[in-house]
Amino acid sequence: MTKADLVEEVAGVTGLTKTDTAMVFEAFLKAISNALISGNNIEIRGFGRFKVKRRKARVARNPRTGAAVPIPERNVPIFQPSNFLKEKVARG
Fold first, then answer.
1. 70 exposure class (CB count in 10 Å sphere: 0-12, 13-18, 19+)
2. Which of 3, 44, 64, 71 is least buried, going by the fewest C-beta atoms within 10 A?
3. pLDDT tens track for 33-48
């Protein structure tokens, strides 16, 4: 499902125009992105949590050459679904 598909579905349910829905959707995504960039976590009850996790520096290997490749320490965004969402997906 693409962002356009989501916008179309939400517009159909809410009765808003696709343009208005797209603007709200973009603002929502921007707010989540800005919070994660600032190092904040976001919790949406019944859906899940967006978090920033610190990955340690490590040495990986290039599979073609076998050469060592250093990977620096970095922050990565992760999503943890709620138990409610996990159960709903498991039921289909």
1. exposed
2. 64
3. 999 999 999 999 999 9
Residue 16, token pair as written in the block: 């808003």
Homologous superfamily, domain 41-92: IHF-like DNA-binding proteins (4.10.520.10)
In angstroms, the CA 45 to CA 84 distance is 9
Q: What's the N-to-C CA distance of the chain in angstroms? A: 16
* DSSP H or E run through 28: helix 18-37
pTM: 0.78
Nearest to 56 by CA among 40, 74, 43: 74
